[in-house]
Amino acid sequence: MKRIMAYIGIRVRDMDRSMKFYSELLGLKTIIPEHKNDLLSSRIIMLRDEKTGQQLELNWYPDGGQFGVPFVPGESLDHIGVRVDDVPAFLEEAKRLGGKVADLRPYRDFPSHKNPEGNTAAYVEDPDGNILEIYDAPGYSIDDVFEGGY
Q1: Contact 94, 82 (CB under 8 A)
Q2: Which terminus of the chain, N or C, has less C-beta within 10 A?
């Protein structure tokens, strides 16, 4: 089974301020422009370091929403994105290692810029409660994730 840690997602309180901070300070470039996710009532931007390929997802959630929990400085990790070629096999392995599957659904409500038909996604809690977003991208090689993929 192939897998790759594709990005880190953080929660932000002000999307414009955070975008300016990470693009100007670290030189990150936008690879997926800001878009709204109506299902999560969120705004999302994906940034990438052109030298290393590392990706940072900025996530803004409204107060009072499902994910709009009170913001605590220093605790803004939202999730770790892990792209896999076999979601069910990865989930079995995560459970074997003490992970808990939090959600599994067709990913069509969160289409990527490369695969508008959608993917399969799941959310897994690690043994300490940190969230991993597990997703696939049918029709695209997992090896292209740092070539502008998601």
Answers
A1: no
A2: N
C-alpha torsion angle, residues 18, 76, 28, 39 (rounded to 10): -80
| Every domain of the chain and the residues it spans | 3-144
Q: Which residues pair with 30 in a beta bridge?
A: 47
Kindly report whether the global pTM for this prediction surpasses the value 0.85. Answer: no
- Listed in sequence order, the residues at least 6 apart from 23 whose beta carbon sits closer than 8 Å to its beta carbon are 29, 30, 47
34 backbone dihedrals φ, ψ, rounded to 5°: -55, 135
Structure tokens at 48: 């990438």
| CA nearest neighbour of 135 among 114, 147, 127 | 114
Residue 54: both structure tokens together:
């590392």
CATH code of the domain occupying 3-144: 3.10.180.10
What is the pLDDT tens value at each position of the chain, 150 positions in all? Answer: 888 888 999 888 889 989 998 898 788 999 988 888 777 778 999 999 888 788 999 989 888 777 777 767 667 788 888 888 888 888 888 888 888 887 665 554 444 444 556 677 888 888 767 788 888 877 777 766 555 555
